[in-house]
Amino acid sequence: MTTPSYSLINNETGEKVDLPVVKGTLGPLGADVGKVYDKMDLFTYDPGFTSTCSTKSAITYIDGDKGILLYRGYPVDQLAKHSTFIEVAYLILHGELPSKVQLDSFEASIRRHTMINESLRRFFDGFNYDAHPMAMLTGIVGSLSAFYHDTTNNKDPKHREIFAHRMIAKIPTIAAAAYKKSFGQPFMYPKNNLDYCSNLLRMMFAVPAEEYEINPVAAKALDVLFILHADHEQNASTSTVRLAGSTGCNPYAAISSGIAALWGPAHGGANEAVLKMLEEIGDVKKVPDFMARAKDKNSGVRLMGFGHRVYKNFDPRATIIREQCHKVLKELKIDDPQLELAMKLEEIALSDDYFKERKLYPNVDFYSGIIYKALGIPVNMFTPMFAIARTVGWVAHWSEMTAEPGGVKIGRPRQVYTGSPVRDYAPIATR
Ligand code: ACO
User: What pTM does this model have?
Assistant: First the structure.
């Protein structure tokens, strides 16, 4: 099949600019508008980037109409069923599933890098007792850039690899420390004979005074959730990491900016917002009233965990998480009325014209909070959990961008200026 060609035409003058086509392996073609301004004195305008690609990438593919999510070509449901978070992390970073030797070596390296500098640990003392863990995560991860001057030659693949391993290994330690700080318990050092999620659970829930037994159901549930959250192509936080990273800044600082972007309720903060919403509704009887408010634009209320910029059919991660939610609650013998409430909300929304017309379906975060809650993870730690998993994606995108032959082009969007035309300064006495 021949590749179609595209042009931009000035209907007034007939002036025409041909747009070179950028072709990927799957999905729509890209029309390269990079020369439009030069040739036509015209900007392209797309706030929210609904039709705009900021980059090429070989990491993750999403087909929002068909509900497809692939990491390096592998369907996410197959990975969630058969793989582990650490293997998926290797896949996302390196592009291929590892051999046994490669996996063992990768996992050993991640386990070796789990500790954080003792000075960094003391940074937590500077936070107020009621600091949100995401605030601490943003600050502490940014501060990592003050500790690793030895590996900041972004052009050196070995330096990039050490950064990747450090970041993925340390983020659970930092998140767990933020949790412990929030209620005054002593920090728990990592225990490197444990797998990634078991180690995290121990750092969060163990205390030095007692033995702690890891619940394998909880560790496995966390592992699956982390696989589902590991990457999602050019989402807001990943784009933030890329934009910050495109300046050549320290990679830890770039990841910190991604954490800040993830925090918002329109993005990773939605999992926390879902649980707060379920708490606020409280009872199945109050669902109709809440739904009416969610549909009323003036109320400022949205059905949290519903809708997605890309998925306009269903979010494949939500389907897996819903199944996981039932499984985990059953295995842990938990009867949570909030699951019933969530299912009722979903049922009503899916048959409601407002949601149907706008193609709003449950997203990854609609059920994840109920699982986190079942694992004993408090609501303000939901988004840090997301951040731990998404660190893999952020690191992979930063590495992909930084390794580009010819170097990174700084990300620098333009604007349509709507301010005052040029005017002369007026002395204060005349104003
Ligand atoms: N509840 C009620 N109405 C909604 C919702 C919702 N959750 N989401 C979108 N709408 C409505 C909007 O009001 C709008 O209606 P209109 O066309 O009559 O004006 C229409 O659906 C389109 O919504 P937009 O905000 O334009 O869609 P956009 O693609 O920009 O936003 C987003 C996507 C941010 C995810 C949105 O659906 C939302 O706010 N959802 C709730 C928050 C949430 O769950 N975020 C997590 C996303 S997944 C993630 O980041 C991991």
Answer: 0.93
